[in-house]
Design goal:
homotetramer; alpha+beta; four-stranded antiparallel sheet; about 140 residues; Beta-Lactamase
Chain lengths: ~140, ~140, ~140, ~140
């Protein structure tokens, strides 16, 4: 029995990032935008001029989280706060699990093939950019 | 005076994991399942097809936690949230302490001999799989 | 353009590990044996009774290395020592790059689909076990 | 007294990366290519289709090293081996110092403004790609 995993190419990743950048420009929220493949490994990253340095790591790890748990980091947040069923998950995976909005899985025909992570603005802004990015897959 | 530590063999670990896999199949919750020995060190691990990548680390560290503190991670959660007597413990041990359900000690004649850790579903699902696993010791 | 990556199932991983265990028993070299998928992420691990604790990490990271660079760790060693073109690579990837024998890529139709890592004996023994394991893919 | 630091924009980084990609395509060495700014912080990264997973980290850290020490990683290698005046430097900076070819500073009017890091082939190939990339600044 063979396992076939559809993943993202560099072309896919750059198209997704470009769509995110366009939205980030539009809402004036300079962002870090990262795309990981089906294995959770980085395919491409950009830091727009003026975007935060800390957001390099955060964008990459939001993308990792969204693929590693097949969930948006905003939805994960709902279960990851005090009293939630996954409270403490942010300490796992060597600190790579991000539990605030901006990471969204990339899907093709319903299957998760990677994820995008955005960091640079408010949670609402990061989510807006990420959601504009994923439609470009 | 000699210290004798009863621990788990690879056979024990694989029997425990198989019992967990059967339950995970039954409740349709593809899981990572890990067993550690009396020293808290990994004996065996499986990632069922389709289970989350982030859960590799989480399952191994739920097992570590359950042995390292001789408590289920669900019970630990009760003391590890804001205001609890162990609040902040998830930052210790290099991020290896998991404070949500799915890690359960393995006992023989009342003595803890290792632990199992399960990650892949909701807290309730992970707990269900772990509890089905431990009875196989 | 879609990227399709063939990977390993848990069944694949357990068959590979079983073949490795049989060889390890035969040459009396209790081993840790780990299999990673195409993304470099752990699928399964066993520590045979009496195998070294340090070899848990080493086996998992030999497998990671063999997939992350599509090379056997023995072949990598030739370039990773003092004066070699990759000297210092063992410090990259958070210390996960293992540069001694025992990690071997798993291939199907010439494509790398994952890797096995073995640790527990001499370099020669680990290599022998790993090479017996990979043929079971 | 004011410190003015000339650095690289995202446009600069993407132009440098594109030049590197063109050379990598030409010499058939699928590469990870990363650019850091004057602060040593990532501006952009691409992993070309088929390039090694381990090279994500290595490319980013070759770029970091080349800026953090204002030297090519190939030149650093000459001093970083056993007996060299900087032997052991690869263990500093949390494992981020890469001491093999492929990291090259980016200069404007003689001043270092960032760096590029390439990983994916032999030391010679990585160096060739990096040197093709830096001229695009």
């Amino acid at each position: 029995m063979t396992v076939n995993q559809t993943s993202v190419s560099l072309d896919d990743a750059q198209r997704v990032i470009a769509a995110g950048q366009a939205k980030a420009d539009e809402i004036e929220s300079p962002s870090n935008i990262a795309v990981v493949d089906a294995g959770g490994n980085l395919v491409a990253h950009v830091r727009m001029d003026g975007a935060w340095i800390a957001s390099i790591d955060i964008s990459i790890n939001k993308a990792f989280t969204a693929r590693a748990l097949d969930i948006s980091t905003e939805d994960l947040a709902a279960d990851a706060g005090p009293g939630g069923q996954f409270y403490g998950i942010h300490a796992s995976n060597g600190g790579r699990i991000m539990i605030f909005a901006g990471g969204v899985p990339l899907r093709r025909n319903g299957q998760v093939v990677g994820a995008v992570g955005v960091s640079g603005g408010t949670g609402e802004q990061d989510k807006t950019v990420a959601e504009a990015a994923v439609v470009a897959i």
